[in-house]
Fold this sequence. Notes:
elongated, single chain, 8 strands, mainly beta, 2 helices, 4-stranded antiparallel beta sheet, 158 residues
Amino acid sequence: xxRSALAxxxxxxxxxxxxxxxxxxxxxxxxxxxxxGSDRVTVDAYDDPLVQGVTCYVSxxxxxxxxxxxxxxxxxTEASIACRQVGPIRFTQxxxxxxxxxxxxxxxxxxxxxxxxxxxxKRNTLVYLTYSDRIATGSPKNSVTAVPxxxxxxxxxx
Length: 158
């Protein structure tokens, strides 16, 4: 019961965009032609909202067709992530040890893509993990990337 309530709250947060970074589509390529809208792979960029100077790029499959156009198709669970330092790294506030920094729906309500930031204090590195879940079940498919913080800059942790 507690798990389903948490999943419902997470789904609500995804739908409302509460407290998460906003993705910007950089490009897409068609993978399967359909007259009603092709399947494609998109590359989205988002800037970490609490770490200035870090941008993550997430590629993922998008289902086309009538259902995809209407936003009711279920996208595949495959995704890949690469995060890079794109400017001087500055922290706007202390970071939690582990937190969702980006989520996007992969189906009408029940499936979500997550990007989680994990702080590796021992190595002074930010680790970003992407995976998908459903309200009832998740997927073990995941991708990980890391951004080392320059020497002399310490990651502030709550």
